[in-house]
Specification:
The chain has three domains: about 5-140, Response regulator (Rossmann fold, 3-Layer(aba) Sandwich); about 150-325, Alpha-Beta Plaits; about 335-379, no CATH class. The protein is about 55% helix and about 15% strand. The protein has 15 helices and twelve strands. Helix 5 links the parallel strand 4 (about 85) and strand 5. Helix 2 runs parallel beside helix 3 (about 65-70) and helix 8 (about 180-190) crosses helix 9 (about 190-210). The radius of gyration is 32 Å and the shape is elongated.
């Protein structure tokens, strides 16, 4: 490889290709193709090509067809590739068609070397500047390491969703999720490792959300999801699934298990009367903080008559997973219901192994405790 910028010359005339190549020799690395189909294959496969100089009249695929394929390609690098057409006897109508398809420039046959080099240099400089600008914008919008949107961009996404919802009488929901005790996790593991733990949560969230949802950073250890067209009740169900998944997750750092829980705030329009996307995000954030202040590991949705969202019954497997990771607290509050679920298994073990367990007493104590819990809830 010469290290020079690589240019594709496309013309069915070998003489024209040689003439152009000689004019560009020493300034550009040249690849040649004799028809549009060959040029298209070269552009798809050769990622080093930075510009195209093409004739209009060619066999198999002419210059118009090649230009149209390039500009309509799903490959971003081809959509913005400098494309120069060699003009000769074409009409004004044909030139207008080329402009409409997105041609970058025209050169006439027999053009001097200095002129063609100047045109190419300017087009490549413009292309490089555009690419640098796009990269800078991408970095402003997304975190380069996690791929998550920035909070500012989430506000823009929420604003667009709110505008659409207002026109079509739709709904928009926002969730803000926080790792509980994030400062303690940072103190225990160090900030870099705590950030990695947060990134694992973010990856789990990214795998669960819809394509039309937007996931991004809210604050350190906290993430937000903008969900257009989603009712608050649906978001609460989703948040509860996430809460349970995090609580039962097996996560290790520096060889030690990390007990994780999340607090979630949910806010929706039109239920919440807010005037802006930023206010909607902040409302969800305040409800997340309310959930944390109430002890964490819970959801606050704030809808009509709603406080903390009701949790789903815990499965036996989830309870076992929590006990194995040294987290009995969530299990204790649901112990009566879980105990009654496993009672048939205990009865079978008692019968098969002859254990003489006090099953009647165990059942009665579980029922009594369950009734006491129900009584406390009704107060």
């Amino acid at each position: 490889m010469s290290g020079l910028p690589r240019i594709l010359i496309v013309d069915d005339s070998r003489i024209v290709r040689i003439s152009l190549a000689n004019q560009l020799k020493g300034h550009y690395d040249i690849r040649e193709e004799s028809d549009g189909e060959g040029a298209w294959q070269a552009l798809v496969l050769d990622h080093d090509l930075q510009a195209v100089i093409s004739d209009l009249q060619m066999p198999k695929l002419d210059g118009f067809g090649l230009l149209e394929r390039v500009r309509s390609s799903k490959l971003r690098r081809l959509q913005q590739l400098p494309f120069i057409l060699v003009s000769g006897e074409e009409t004004e109508e044909e030139r207008g068609r080329a402009k409409a398809l997105g041609v970058s420039d025209f050169i006439t046959k027999g053009i001097g070397s200095n002129e063609i080099l100047t045109r190419l240099d300017h087009l490549l400089a413009l292309s490089n500047a555009r690419e640098s600008l796009d990269t800078s914008r991408e970095h402003m919008v997304r975190d380069t390491e996690t791929g998550l949107f920035s909070r500012k961009y989430l506000e823009l996404q929420a604003a667009q969703a709110l505008s659409h919802a207002a026109r079509h009488h739709g709904q928009v929901s926002v969730l803000v999720l926080s790792l509980d005790r994030y400062d303690a996790i940072c103190a225990q593991l160090g900030a870099p490792m705590a950030e990695q733990v947060g990134n694992r949560l973010a990856k789990m969230l990214a795998a669960k959300i819809r394509q039309e949802d937007s996931l991004g950073h809210y604050e350190p250890g906290r993430y937000a999801i903008v969900s257009p067209g989603t009712a608050p009740a649906t978001c609460v169900i989703f948040a509860e699934r996430v809460r349970q998944a995090v609580e039962a997750a097996h996560i290790a750092a520096h060889g030690q298990r990390v007990a994780l829980t999340v607090s979630v705030g949910v806010a929706s329009v039109p239920e919440a009367r807010v005037s802006s996307a930023g206010a909607l995000l902040e409302l969800a954030g305040s409800r997340m903080r309310e959930a944390m202040q109430a002890g964490g590991n819970r959801i606050v949705s704030g809808g009509p008559g709603q406080g903390e969202a009701p949790t789903r019954p815990m499965s036996i497997q989830q309870a076992i997973d929590l006990l194995r990771t040294g987290r009995p607290e969530p299990v204790l509050s649901l112990l009566p219901a879980l105990g009654l679920q496993v009672l048939p298994l205990l009865q079978l073990l008692d019968k098969e192994l002859g254990l003489a367990l006090p099953l009647a007493e165990i059942e009665q104590q579980l029922i009594t405790r369950a009734r006491e819990q129900e009584a406390r809830k009704s107060v």
